[in-house]
Amino acid sequence: MFRKSSTKANTSSIPPVINAPRIPCDLNLSSDRHMTSVDTAIAVSGLTHRYGTRTALAGLELSICRGEIFAILGPNGGGKTTFFRLLSTLIPLQAGSISILGVDAGRESRRAQALIGVVFQAPSLDKKLTVSENLRHQGPLYGLSGARLQSAHDRLLDRLGLTDRAADLVETLSGGLRRRVELAKGLLHQPPVLILDEPSTGLDPGARSDLWKYLHEIREQDGVTVVLTTHLLEEAEKADRIAILDEGQLVALDTPDALRATVGGETITIETDHPDTIVSQIQARHGLTASVIDGAVRLEVPSAHTWIARIVESLPVGHIRALTLRKPTLEDVFIAKTGHRFWTDTEGRRHD
Amino acid sequence: MTDRPPSAALLVVQPWRVVATLAGRELTRFFRQRNRVIGALGQPLLFWLLFSAGLGPSFRMPGAADSSLSFGQYFFPGTVVLIVLFTSIFATISIIEDRREGFLQSVLVAPIPRWAMVLGKLLGGTCIAVIQAVLFLALGWFAGLRCDGLELLAIVGLLFVLSLALTGLGFVIAWRLDSTQGFHAIMSVFLMPMWLLSGAFFPASEGVLYWVTRFNPLSYGVAGLRQLLYSTEVGAAHALPSLAVCWSVTVLFAVVTFVASWRVSAQRISGDLL
């Protein structure tokens, strides 16, 4: 199964996981599918998945660097949950490949499984067991037992501030504490890659910020690569890089700042009853291209604030209900890339 | 990658530890839920007391001498098997709960062989069932039942194999179901009749019932237990299959349901995805 000979050296304590400086890996989506850099934690190529006739993922290509916090952002139905399930090996690959630290998840799923820690959106804890028992039963599933299990157990409880709750039944814990136990369970075998599905669902703001604190901590101290899915724009902002998925396609992939920069300058939004008139007026008078999103006119232009007075003056009186000027947000990025709003429920979509 | 292999890759999963930890979890859960203990032991006990009292006076073994077993004695091994059936089945339908509550998904993504997951679940249920059955057997001591160590070992051994077979059966049924309600329906139209037609409750010595009993694998567990508890003469008087046949069929029953559980669990179903 695994290389048995190399286990002998480390019987008493778990060696620290990769504590390497973060070297930027090749951020470009290389056309060479077989290229895996040493600094690539996860390489995804041609990933396609269908549920019956519905395509959840269509030819996804991306690579995730070692030691980065990588967010998969998308609306419900965008394909991120399917991506998570494929990455966690919960569902089998249909087409395409996923390589985790150079291990092919399709061909060598056991080895790949050993390299990842998984934190599910739905709780995976046994509520009738105590915090401590949950971790002790998790250990052998990843080859941990005896003294190594004990030390991993103690270390994680301590680190996640759960030591004094170790003997409590999970069903008596709050949502935030449970999520911490989930995290401890996922990290028990010191995986170099941690994947989380919608980790802050159901958490109050305090627990949410705690969660992020831990994620940053394990990334900084242990060099763990963190991959998480989220439908929350403000959560994705905290990641190093964001991949935006919409309808099974990768629509953008970059750092939050770089993504915002692609939208150009600030955004002017005009609420009006006559969007089409206004769009054509702006085009005719100022040579600017505006678009209509959800009945409002949206205009992205460098130094937008300098345009406001001119635009307002040039439009017929009474056509403007409200006019707002905003710095670009990730939602603007999403709209710019997909042509529709983040929360729009297009027909035929469903939770995946 | 070669200079600093990730520590997770150094860990070696030992399947027997996986089996032990999953089985241990079942036991911990079971004894933490008192009502399950009472339910699995209480109902068969009530059955035995009430039916023995109610049917005992009018019960007469067909074609057997008057010195044959009383109904209470006749029904005793049947009751033990009922306990094993109830406990085994209810222990494995917890796989539906495991799935619904999410525990199962963390087992499914772990780097373990699927058979180890199945065996852990089945052995957990089996241990629970055998413990319950042995508790009930202890009551037999008050009813004048005596056996030596070797006989007891054989009895517990047979109960163990029978429980393994029944937990396997429960697993195969439960794996595809997404609600425990569905399981209760199967329990009443399939599992209860299977028990009733195993010779546990009444002897079926002729006609269609005789043949149904012959083809029911559970009958051999009941017949084997009856002979181990009383004597092979009782077996001969009741035209039961020989002990060797009883053992063989029960072991085969266990092997078949284990393999079926293993195979069925290798298939992914939408219920995995909560």
Structural notes for this entry:
- The complex is a heterodimer of chains A (352) and B (274).
- With 352 residues, chain A is α/β, with parallel strands linked by helices.
- Helix content of chain A is 30%, strand content 25%.
- Chain A contains 11 helices and 14 strands.
- The longest helix of chain A has 18 residues, at 205-222.
- Mean pLDDT of chain A is 82; it is low at 1-24, 27-36 and 345-352.
- Chain B has one domain (14-56, 66-272).
- Chain B is elongated and about 65 Å long.
- The chains are: A alpha/beta (352), B mainly alpha (274).
- At the A-B interface, helix 2 and helix 3 of A face helix 1 and helix 5 of B.
Which descriptors would you attach to this protein?
heterodimer, A: about 350 residues, alpha/beta, Alpha-Beta Plaits, six-stranded mixed β-sheet, B: about 270 residues, elongated, disordered N terminus
